[in-house]
Design brief:
By secondary structure, the chain is an alpha+beta fold. The chain has three helices and six strands; from the N terminus they run αβαβαββββ. The strands form two sheets. The chain has a four-stranded antiparallel β-sheet with strand order 1-2-6-3. It starts with a helix and ends in a 9-residue tail after the last strand. The mean pLDDT is 90.
Length: 95
């Protein structure tokens, strides 16, 4: 189990995430190995709001080959993100 301070890595600030905020949904980048229940509890603890629903998805990264080391293959851009829907009336201020 991951500590609740390390579950949320940060906000996902994109155009689509900004449009979701109108519907009271916020997008976070989260740590690997956590589930929706843990993410919901971490958001409630960090921002003092009530979570209604959490949707979790994994973004598959691209395989990249290093130019310096020809045999070195790595993955770039892999992440796990969560779309958190808050109860009506609750908001999170993104500074």
């Amino acid at each position: 189990m991951v500590e609740s301070e390390k579950i949320l890595k940060g906000f996902r600030v994109t155009e689509k995430a900004a449009n979701l905020q109108v519907a009271n949904q916020y997008t976070f980048e989260v740590a690997d190995g956590v589930n929706a229940i843990e993410i919901g509890k971490a958001v409630e603890k960090a921002f003092k709001v009530k979570v209604e629903r959490v949707n979790v998805m994994k973004a598959k990264g691209k395989v990249k080959v290093s130019r310096v080391r020809r045999n070195s293959v790595g993955v770039k851009g892999r992440m796990k993100k969560a779309v958190v829907t808050l109860k009506k009336g609750d908001t999170i201020q993104i500074a």
